[in-house]
Amino acid sequence: MQNTTELTFEQLGLHPKTLKTLAQNGYETPSPIQAELIPLALTGRDCIGQARTGTGKTAAFMLPTMERIDLAEPAVQVLALAPTRELSEQVMMEAKKLCGGRIKLGIGVGGRPIHLQIRDIENGAQGIIGTPGRIIDLLRRGALNLDKLKVLILDEADRMLDIGFRPDIERIIKQCPKKRQTLLLSATLPPPVEKLAQKYMTDPEMVDLSEDNVVVDTIEQYYVTVDENRKRSLLLRVLAQEKPAQAIVFTRTKRGADKLLEVFSRRLKSDRIAAIHGDLPQRKRDRVIKDLRAGKLRLLIATDVVGRGIDISGISHIINYDIPEFCDDYVHRVGRTGRLSSAENGRAITFVRLDQGGELTNIEMRINTVLPEYRVDGFEAYAPKERSQRTVRKFGA
């Protein structure tokens, strides 16, 4: 990999109008993923980019993609797929800034009036950003035609496969021209993602910025052992001790998120706390994300599906109230903090029951890091007679 520390956007081969727009939006120097991926993608070849969210990967795939668009052609030439509505809308916002109004963009996500999305396509949208389910719906209705498609983008591919979008993705790909460029972006590259790439990409160039340790150094990570019935008390103590600017608390279930919101809204007597999950109406989800961005919320309780769509630089703390079921979900959860634009390190604290030592070990193996124990002075997080069990997990054969 070349040394990219001294590169500028001017050296990446971008159009002068693009460079002007970047300067107007405060983009000064490319991030590592941008410096590596943009020149490769500009050649038109298929590319796989492995980098966590928050490293500037949206610009890394959108900037070279926009260079491929024929501005005189009122047809969909770029399709970007993302796992959630929130993430799709964030990519859309970023893309609009990057193109400076030169390209017509449309969105295709559920929870939004489909007739407005169809109207954007009919009015000559040249780029569509959306979720697989709604894109399938638009294709079925005959509202979306991909015959003129030049670039297909699969953003957060690992998460799209995690939540069951593989059949939809494959159906969409089969309606794309065979002669196209495919860009696949993912924080992790588990076997299902590799198989998808092998099947539908042509000799892709790999840009791997995961650096062995898939969680970057700007995140301080800890575990704390706790009995299930003491988690709420522990969370209160952690919040009091850490005093986060903004924190996301992850739960495994929607019911767990709602219960935690009910309890903590009452105990904290604050309107700066909210929950977000898949059952929440889209209008409420939009309002929660808007309030979080505006700094009106200090604490957000989220499930993994929606949590993956939160791309906000102000998150200082991630608390895994429930240890994630899959190691890759841990990577994505903690990636909500320690962002590219954040001046300070983020902190991630994972609550672990005594019977979950094996799950913690799997996470440590996944990130190639042994997590230190987080201390809460004066708080007894688990029964004294059970302490030795944790010691066995750490130091036993």
TrEMBL record:
Its EC number is 3.6.4.13. Coiled coil: none annotated. It is an enzyme of class 3 (hydrolase). Residues 38-207 form the Helicase ATP-binding domain. SMART domains: DEXDc, HELICc. Keywords: ATP-binding, Helicase, Hydrolase, Nucleotide-binding. One of its GO terms (molecular function) is hydrolase activity. GO terms for cellular component: cytosol. InterPro entries: DEAD/DEAH_box_helicase_dom (IPR011545), DEAD/DEAH_RhlB (IPR044742), DEAD_box_RNA_helicase (IPR050079), Helicase_ATP-bd (IPR014001), Helicase_C-like (IPR001650), P-loop_NTPase (IPR027417), RNA-helicase_DEAD-box_CS (IPR000629), RNA_helicase_DEAD_Q_motif (IPR014014). A motif (Q motif) lies at residues 7-35. The keyword Isomerase does not apply. Residues 7-35 form the DEAD-box RNA helicase Q domain. It holds the Pfam family Helicase_C. Belongs to the DEAD box helicase family. This is DEAD-box ATP-dependent RNA helicase CshA. It comes from Fuerstiella marisgermanici. The gene is cshA.
